[in-house]
Design brief:
Blueprint (H helix, E strand, L loop, with lengths): L2 E7 L5 H19 L8 E7 L4 E3 L2 E3 L1 H26 L1
Parallel strand pairs: 1-2
Antiparallel strand pairs: 3-4
Length: 88
């Protein structure tokens, strides 16, 4: 029985996003192992306190992660805008 554990910084993802993660991770495993194992595929989301997560020797907070997500979203919107100009 597969057990998938995902660790994330607390307060970054909404309950809806967490549910989507669980659903998509389960679907991915079932696509590999077969539908019969869906009822036995476990997904655990573990939240780590903001600041208790280290990357490259530095602690990372939930506000820093949210800023990175917002920055990526802006970049994606800008790319779509450039694509429309090229395609249009």
């Amino acid at each position: 029985m597969p057990l998938l554990t995902v660790k994330m910084i607390e307060g970054v993802f909404t309950p809806t996003q967490k549910q989507e993660m669980i659903r998509k991770l389960t679907d991915t495993m079932v696509s590999i192992e077969g539908e019969n194992l869906r009822p036995y595929t476990l997904v655990v989301l573990e939240e780590v306190k903001s600041g208790d997560w280290g990357v490259a020797g530095n602690s990372l907070t939930n506000s820093e992660v949210k800023a990175l997500v917002a920055e990526k979203s802006k970049g994606c919107r800008a790319q779509r805008g450039r694509r429309r100009v090229r395609d249009g």
